[in-house]
Specification:
There is one protein chain. By secondary structure, the chain is of the alpha/beta class. It has two domains: about 1-205 and about 380-400, Rossmann fold; about 210-380, Rossmann fold (3-Layer(aba) Sandwich), CATH 3.40.50.2000. The chain has helices spanning about 15-30, 45-50, 70-80, 90, 95-110, 140-150, 155-175, 185-195, 210, 235-255, 270-275, 290-295, 310-320, 345-360, 360-380, 380-400; strands at about 1-5, 35-40, 60, 115, 130-135, 180, 200, 220-225, 260, 280-285, 295-300, 325, 340-345. The strands form two sheets. Strands 3-2-1-4-5-6-7 form a seven-stranded parallel sheet, sandwiched between helices. Strands 10-9-8-11-12-13 form a six-stranded parallel sheet, sandwiched between helices. β8, α10 and β9 form a beta-alpha-beta unit. α1 packs across α16 (about 380-400) and α6 (about 140-150) packs antiparallel against α7. The protein is globular, with a radius of gyration of 21 Å.
């Protein structure tokens, strides 16, 4: 197949879950198909363009500046977004020149399959009627959960506004697309009931078992480890909730418990948490997350906001580290509470789950083994990509017919 894949970002450096999913699948698809990857030019560094050959047969780049959320320009975008019907999370990634260029690519290259990777790519297609929308999250649910957990009335009103705009935009895209491929059956159910979409399917989340396999002993990193980009609002909220409400309960029983927060671009509010607690390690960007997993006792996923599926859970399982998560944190994953993972939602229950695993090495070993067998059986990237390949081939056949 000749495939057009539109995504606003390069896939290196790889530091987000969605990037990992797309990269691992595209590397395997490229071995059998012609991949045309359309994206924005890299504003800094050369790793993205230099490594694009790993997953793209041909690369198409377009100028567009995505401004940092700390920049004055972003504040102007934020203000302008109050008067736009397009949600800000979509509009800040929109480029009119890219939309024109993508239309010309589609006209001249005659692709067998067109993939809109993430909802933010949707405005760059004149129409989605012949396009497969690859949805890594249900974006509307992310914004609704932001509104539900907002700490002050002003933020709550803003998140609620964005949630309503995202609902209208996402509903229209999901109904218009030739097919929507989600990353979990739970997301399919949500999109069907929320948007009235009917052309829906899903592929599972994968993990590189060989890459995460631990060999031998490793230096101690921390008792508890959290892995995730620390400029993503659900992760920021989850870490603040954990440190503020759960960690004190754990420390009441085990005062010396240490925590490693491993992820790029920690925001000032997260930096402040670590500055006030010498037993919290904040790493920022790391070249390799595996030593932090291997050197910990328990992986924590204290998310209250989210969508899609968390690759960090399967990565922890592949690394042999037991996981304590909220239900939302493990949403969409067919995990088994008490056997392959502990699912705990209240601060008291989450703390108790962490304490139980920290106190019992044999329980940690049993859960880690069951979790590894669970991901090894069905969730290698080879299996996930083959499933995705079948589903886009079937969608293409229906569109062509």
């Amino acid at each position: 197949m000749k495939i057009l894949w539109v995504n606003p970002n390069f896939l290196h450096p790889t530091n987000k879950g969605g990037q990992i999913r797309t990269l691992e699948m595209l590397k395997r698809l490229k071995a059998r198909h012609e991949i045309h990857y359309a994206t924005f030019e890299a504003p800094h560094g050369s790793e993205g363009p230099a490594r694009a050959h790993e997953y793209a047969t041909r690369l198409h780049t377009f100028p567009h500046r995505i401004h940092s959320k700390r920049s004055p320009r972003f504040l102007l975008e934020l203000a302008a977004g109050l008067f736009s019907e397009m949600p800000l999370a979509i509009s800040r990634f929109y480029s009119a020149p890219m939309k024109t260029a993508v239309a010309e690519l589609i006209r001249s290259e005659r692709f067998d399959v067109q993939i809109c990777d993430f909802l933010v790519s949707a405005p760059h297609f004149l129409s989605l009627s012949d396009v497969i929308l690859f949805q890594h999250n249900v974006e509307t649910m992310l914004w609704r959960r932001h509104a539900d957990t907002a700490a002050d009335p002003l933020r709550k009103r803003y998140f609620d506004l964005q949630a309503r705009r995202m609902f209208r935009y996402e509903r229209r895209a999901c109904r218009e697309a030739a097919k929507v491929i989600a990353v979990s059956e739970a997301d399919v159910t949500t999109m069907r009931s929320l948007f009235g979409a009917t052309r829906l399917d899903f592929v599972g989340t994968g993990v590189d078992l060989e890459y995460f396999a631990s060999a031998g002993d490793h230096p101690r990193s921390a008792d508890l480890v959290f892995v995730g980009s620390m400029d993503w609002l659900p992760n920021i909220d989850g870490v603040k909730w954990f440190v503020g409400e759960i960690l004190p309960l754990i420390r009441a029983k085990r005062p010396d418990v240490s925590v490693a927060i491993v992820g790029r671009s920690p925001q000032p509010e997260i930096t402040a948490l670590a500055a006030n607690d010498p037993r919290i390690t904040l790493t920022g960007t790391v070249p390799d997350i595996r030593p932090y997993l291997w050197g910990s006792s328990v992986s924590i996923v204290p998310l209250r906001i989210g969508g899609g599926t968390r690759l960090k859970i399967y990565e922890s399982m592949a690394a042999g580290v037991p996981v304590v998560s909220t239900v939302i944190g493990a949403e969409g994953l067919p995990v088994s509470d008490g056997r392959t993972i502990l699912l705990r939602d209240s601060p008291t229950a989450f703390a108790a789950g962490c304490l139980d695993l920290l106190a019992n090495a044999s329980d940690r070993t049993l859960m880690a083994r069951a979790a590894w067998e669970f991901v090894a059986e069905s969730f290698s990237w080879e299996q996930v990509t083959a499933d995705f390949e079948r589903k886009i081939s079937n969608a293409n056949a229906k569109c062509s017919g």
